[in-house]
């Protein structure tokens, strides 16, 4: 059973490209082709505009909330090649950092797990991926991976933080030795996995299976199992689920979730990683769940001809 | 990939624009966001035709079926054409389980939580009969909670003036009623596993309890002055007979007999037959075979009377006799008085096969439903669920219930109970971890989106051995820490379960919040609790900065009582010790204070940036009448001063700052003077 509990009228003057709830579901950030980023307080079914952030000079593609332990921080990326980090100070939202190191549209931003600090990965149409790390006192350190994907990078997604080796609690004050990884998808039809080694980012894996541009990648949250899972979707209409069983991250095997009839634009995991949502060009969003024997249960009745979409008038709402 | 067996449930998101737009979907912690968008605008120079399809299909939220021998389609919200605004800039916050927000159901969730916990902790050493009795009691407790909730909901429906609300409440009442109906049947068939004999009695009770459409009619007739003259009199007698309420039927019939002496003979015979009807008993007073024999004799006796035409002149009584004989047509004639096929089923069994065995039920059930519905209407979901129960297809029952009901409460608790009855273990499940856990995880996850019910969810996760802990970790991080009390509650839960990461995370978030609100003391205590050295250092710096600016400390209590947590970070240690220095000074314990001051610098506890301040603090000690610093200490101080000034030689600020240079001069002077005095003092031999 689903019900719409709130309809937020964002008053964006143009197409909305992304909407993200903050960590607790109390605030909503939206961004649009009208170049603005808006933040709403949506507690208790309300919608109060908290901020209308202007600073971008082109359509804003994505927003991402940082972990609340760093305060209220939001990142946005845009066609104008900029990444802007906004912060709430004393009740008002302001630009706290602007990164202009890319040569064309920045398509995707993603915050790293909070355990690593405040780190933002940005993927751009200039083929590069930048990593912005907050070093304190309003300073950000930039590391750039040039030519990460030829033609362009469309998506970035961080792996959940997992301490390798022992699971005993680290003594206080010491930072555990995290192995930082993230995945990226690009116009070279590849999904790549990047790993930080000796403070440098290196390409660890190249995952090939798509035959057209990769539009989105999403690394599933960890539920304590030793496997890692990544979902990728592409212009070629396919969605692949990549799994890696060993901790060293060496052998990834893809499983085709489904081949859709149109471009698949967006994939995202629920917070307990048990459901994958796939947004396609065929004006449908489908949800998928994995079964115990590793098969992905197709949740959309595509085979039975539901691919032809037609509007269902109000009177025919299904009770379920 | 399995072929789905049924159409995916479609959910309409009212108001979403069905025109040429695509849907973007994002997960929130407890809800999902759907917004209309158009993909393909980003991603570089390659242009892709924007598909102009109508309409956009919003996202659905699914009720994933736990029994996946078929894959369930979970999608499909369709946009509702009404209310579409041009150039829509709306984001829909879609929620999957609204029931948790219904106030009247709150009691259901709270009390069933108590029963659930009791069941988890109950002794498994009890075996056999006593364990079964215990489980039956648990089942009854759940049912009474459902009934209590129904009662509340009914009251609410009656007392509200708002027709929409009233409709809502009434719907809830019927849903709860259906839930209790199903649960009761499951209790009889699965939990109690009533055997042939008692099975029929239980089913009779069940029917009597749940088919209440005729209650008002019964009341009306009974309360009238002369019931036998009431036009519905015979209907009521029939109701009693159909429900096996022989005593009540006979009582009413006796009134009729008194009113109509002519039918006295007939009445006496019928009454006698009804009195003698053999019924299963709950105790062990007769075996099934004995019962069957008796029943056979009685059946034949009824047959004889009917065939003799004893009741020919009174169609009512004749029909009753036919019913007693289990004549299906006669019983079916009274369809409206039974109202449901399962009532028909039980009546049939009562009068044709009272010693029915549990495994035989399925045949009677199917045929009863077919006969009753007679091809005029098709079975509803509730009918299918009950049928599955009669067929002892537990999994089917759970699956159907999951689909039909709007939240997981029912299936989660029922399945848990059945699992405790050890009834579910032989089935091989499809969807990952076992079904009980699956349903409990779904139910508890739903609770987490509620601002206070989430606490119940914690307990449920605790009893999910495989994924409960990790689900709890993921969910508890998302509880908004809106007040300190809430944060402490969350902390306590995490600490009890040794969820160290979550503890640290919560403390860090609270520390950051406090810092932003300039509540340094609070921030410090949170960062100590988080064992976050870096943050503690940051806050200590703030304290010290405040001190430099204002000349006094805030939150003295906290700093004074740091204890061993002072060691968390060097800066914090310094803060604590520095404050101690001030205290010692205040208490006029100058030598100790002096020693401490010196240690702070020589042991490098103090940051270099603070040395100047410390040295300045030393000034009054140097100027005291009595000598406080020994020669050695004075040399140390001088060395510190020289280290400090030497290190700052390149700093322009230092050289240009008159105040600083004056200070340094004063210090050098004071140190030199002290040195002079102390050399003299130490050189002087005291007494001899």
Automatic annotation (TrEMBL), chain A:
Compartmental location: Lysosome membrane; Nucleus, Nuclear pore complex
WD repeats: 9-50, 53-96, 207-242
SMART domains listed in its UniProt record: WD40
Domain of life from the UniProt record: Eukaryota
Major place of residence: membrane
Transport among keywords: yes
Key words of the record: Lysosome, mRNA transport, Nuclear pore complex, Nucleus, Protein transport, Repeat, Translocation, Transport, WD repeat
Gene Ontology CC annotations of this record: COPII vesicle coat; lysosomal membrane; nuclear pore outer ring
A molecular function (GO) term: structural molecule activity
Gene Ontology BP annotations: COPII-coated vesicle budding; mRNA transport; positive regulation of TOR signaling; protein exit from endoplasmic reticulum; protein import into nucleus
Functional description taken from the UniProt entry: As a component of the GATOR2 complex, functions as an activator of the amino acid-sensing branch of the mTORC1 signaling pathway. The GATOR2 complex indirectly activates mTORC1 through the inhibition of the GATOR1 subcomplex. GATOR2 probably acts as an E3 ubiquitin-protein ligase toward GATOR1. In the presence of abundant amino acids, the GATOR2 complex mediates ubiquitination of the NPRL2 core component of the GATOR1 complex, leading to GATOR1 inactivation. In the absence of amino acids, GATOR2 is inhibited, activating the GATOR1 complex.
Sequence similarity: Belongs to the WD repeat SEC13 family.
PANTHER family: NUCLEAR PORE COMPLEX PROTEIN SEC13 / SEH1 FAMILY MEMBER, PROTEIN SEC13 HOMOLOG
Complex and partners: At the nuclear pore: component of the Y-shaped Nup107-160 subcomplex of the nuclear pore complex (NPC). The Nup107-160 subcomplex includes NUP160, NUP133, NUP107, NUP98, NUP85, NUP43, NUP37, SEH1 and SEC13. At the COPII coat complex: interacts with SEC31A and SEC31B. Interacts with SEC16A. Interacts with SEC16B. Component of the GATOR2 subcomplex, composed of MIOS, SEC13, SEH1L, WDR24 and WDR59. The GATOR2 complex interacts with CASTOR1 and CASTOR2; the interaction is negatively regulated by arginine.
Name the record gives this protein: Protein SEC13 homolog
Annotated source species: Xiphorhynchus elegans (elegant woodcreeper)
Source organism phylogeny: Eukaryota, Metazoa, Chordata, Craniata, Vertebrata
UniProtKB/TrEMBL annotation, chain B:
GO cellular component: a single term: nuclear membrane
Function: Functions as a component of the nuclear pore complex (NPC).
Subcellular location: Nucleus, Nuclear pore complex
Matching PANTHER family: FROUNT PROTEIN-RELATED (PTHR13373), NUCLEAR PORE COMPLEX PROTEIN NUP85 (PTHR13373:SF21)
Gene of this entry: Nup85
BP GO annotations: mRNA export from nucleus; positive regulation of DNA-templated transcription; protein import into nucleus
Record's subunit section: Component of the nuclear pore complex (NPC).
GO MF terms, alphabetically ordered: structural constituent of nuclear pore
Name under which the protein is recorded: Nuclear pore complex protein Nup85
Species of provenance: Xiphorhynchus elegans (elegant woodcreeper)
Span list, region Disordered: 41-70
Keyword tags: Membrane, mRNA transport, Nuclear pore complex, Nucleus, Protein transport, Translocation, Transport
Pfam family, one: Nucleopor_Nup85
Low complexity composition-biased segments: 46-60
Major localisation: nucleus
Family per similarity comment: Belongs to the nucleoporin Nup85 family.
């Amino acid at each position: 059973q689903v019900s719409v509990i709130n309809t937020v009228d964002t008053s964006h003057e143009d197409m909305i490209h992304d909407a993200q709830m903050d960590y607790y579901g109390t605030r909503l950030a939206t961004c649009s082709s009208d170049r603005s980023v808006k933040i709403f307080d949506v507690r208790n079914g309300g919608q109060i505009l908290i901020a209308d952030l202007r600073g971008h000079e082109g359509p804003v593609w994505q927003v991402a909330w940082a972990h609340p332990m760093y305060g209220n921080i939001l990142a946005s990326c845009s066609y104008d090649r900029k990444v802007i980090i906004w912060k709430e100070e004393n009740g008002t939202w302001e630009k706290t950092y602007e990164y202009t190191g890319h040569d064309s549209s920045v398509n995707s931003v993603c915050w790293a797990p909070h355990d690593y600090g405040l780190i933002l990965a940005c993927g751009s149409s200039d083929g590069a991926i930048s990593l912005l790390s907050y070093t304190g006192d309003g300073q950000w350190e930039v590391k750039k991976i040039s030519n990460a994907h030829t033609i362009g990078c469309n998506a970035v997604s961080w792996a959940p933080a997992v301490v390798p080796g022992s699971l005993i609690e680290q003594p206080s004050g010491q930072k555990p030795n995290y192995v930082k990884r993230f995945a990226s998808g690009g116009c070279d039809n590849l999904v790549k996995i990047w790993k930080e080694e000796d403070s440098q980012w290196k390409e660890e894996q190249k995952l090939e299976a798509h035959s057209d541009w990769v539009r989105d990648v999403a690394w599933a949250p960890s539920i304590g199992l030793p496997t890692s899972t990544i979902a990728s979707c592409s212009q070629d209409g396919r969605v692949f689920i990549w799994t890696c069983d060993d901790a060293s991250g060496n052998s990834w095997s893809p499983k085709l979730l489904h081949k859709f009839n149109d471009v698949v634009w967006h994939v995202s995991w629920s917070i307990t990683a048990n459901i994958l949502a796939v947004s396609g060009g065929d004006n449908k969003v489908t949800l998928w769940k994995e079964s115990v024997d590793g098969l992905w249960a197709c949740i959309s009745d595509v085979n039975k001809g539901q691919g032809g979409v037609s509007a269902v008038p109000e009177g025919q709402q299904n009770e379920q | 990939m399995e072929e789905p067996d049924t159409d995916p449930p479609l959910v309409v998101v009212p108001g979403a624009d069905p025109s040429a737009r695509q849907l973007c979907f994002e997960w929130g912690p407890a809800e999902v966001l759907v917004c209309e968008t158009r993909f393909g605008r980003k991603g570089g120079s390659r242009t892709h035709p924007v598909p102009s399809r109508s309409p956009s299909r919003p996202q659905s939220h699914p009720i994933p079926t736990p029994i996946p021998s078929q894959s369930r389609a979970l999608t499909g919200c369709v946009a509702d054409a009404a209310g579409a605004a041009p150039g829509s800039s709306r984001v829909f916050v879609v929620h999957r389980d609204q029931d948790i927000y219904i106030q009247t159901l709150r009691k259901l969730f709270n009390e069933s939580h108590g029963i659930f916990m009791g069941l988890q902790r109950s002794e498994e050493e009890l075996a056999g009969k006593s364990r079964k009795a215990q489980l039956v009691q648990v089942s009854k407790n759940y049912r009474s909670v459902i009934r209590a909730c129904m009662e509340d909901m009914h009251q609410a429906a009656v007392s509200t003036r708002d027709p929409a609300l009233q409709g809502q409440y009434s719907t809830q009442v019927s849903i709860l009623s259906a839930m209790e109906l199903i649960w009761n049947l499951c209790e009889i068939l699965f939990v109690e596993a009533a055997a042939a004999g008692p099975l029929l009695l239980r089913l009779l009770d069940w029917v009597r309890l749940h088919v209440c459409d005729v209650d008002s009619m019964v009341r009306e007739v009974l309360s009238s002055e002369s019931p036998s003259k009431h036009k519905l009199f015979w209907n009521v007698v029939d109701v009693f007979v159909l429900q096996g309420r022989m005593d009540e039927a006979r009582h009413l019939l006796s009134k009729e007999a008194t009113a109509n002496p002519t039918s006295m003979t007939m009445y006496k015979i019928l009454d006698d037959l009804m009195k003698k009807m053999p019924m299963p008993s709950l105790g062990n007073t007769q075996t099934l075979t004995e019962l069957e024999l008796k029943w056979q004799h009685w059946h034949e006796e009824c047959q004889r009377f009917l065939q003799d035409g004893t009741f020919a002149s009174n169609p009512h009584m004749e029909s009753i006799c036919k019913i007693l004989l289990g004549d299906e047509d006669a019983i079916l004639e009274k369809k409206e008085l039974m109202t449901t096929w399962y009532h028909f089923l039980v009546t049939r069994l009562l009068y044709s096969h009272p010693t029915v065995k549990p495994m035989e039920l399925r045949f009677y059930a199917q045929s009863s439903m077919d006969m009753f519905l007679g091809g005029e209407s098709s079975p509803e979901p509730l009918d299918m669920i009950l049928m599955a129960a009669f067929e002892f297809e537990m999994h089917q029952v759970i699956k159907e219930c999951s689909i039909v009901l709007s939240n997981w409460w029912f299936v989660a608790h029922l399945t848990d109970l059945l699992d405790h009855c050890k009834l579910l273990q032989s089935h091989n499940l499809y969807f990952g971890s076992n079904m009980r856990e699956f349903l409990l995880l779904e139910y508890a996850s739903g609770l987490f989106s509620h601002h206070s019910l989430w606490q119940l969810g914690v307990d449920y996760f605790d009893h999910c051995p495989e994924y409960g802990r990790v689900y709890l970790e993921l969910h508890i991080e998302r509880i908004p820490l809106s007040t300190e009390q809430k944060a402490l509650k969350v902390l306590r839960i995490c600490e009890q379960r040794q969820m160290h990461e979550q503890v640290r995370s919560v403390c860090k978030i609270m520390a950051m919040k406090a810092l932003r609100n300039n509540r340094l003391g609070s921030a410090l205590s949170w960062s100590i609790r988080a064992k976050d050295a870096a943050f503690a250092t940051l806050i200590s710096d703030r304290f010290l900065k405040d001190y430099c600016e204002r000349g006094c400390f805030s939150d003295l209590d906290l700093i004074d009582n740091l204890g061993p947590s002072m060691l968390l970070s060097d800066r914090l240690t310094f803060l604590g010790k520095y404050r101690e220095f001030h205290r010692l000074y205040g208490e006029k314990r100058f030598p100790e204070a002096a020693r401490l001051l010196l240690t702070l610098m020589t042991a490098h506890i103090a940051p270099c940036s603070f040395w100047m301040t410390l040295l300045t603090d030393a000034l009054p000690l140097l100027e005291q009448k009595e000598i406080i610093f020994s020669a050695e200490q004075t040399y140390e101080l001088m060395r510190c001063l020289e280290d400090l000034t030497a290190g700052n030689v390149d700093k322009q600020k230092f050289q240009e700052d008159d105040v600083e240079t004056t200070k340094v001069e004063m210090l050098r002077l004071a140190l030199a003077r002290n040195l002079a005095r102390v050399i003299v003092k130490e050189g002087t031999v005291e007494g001899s």
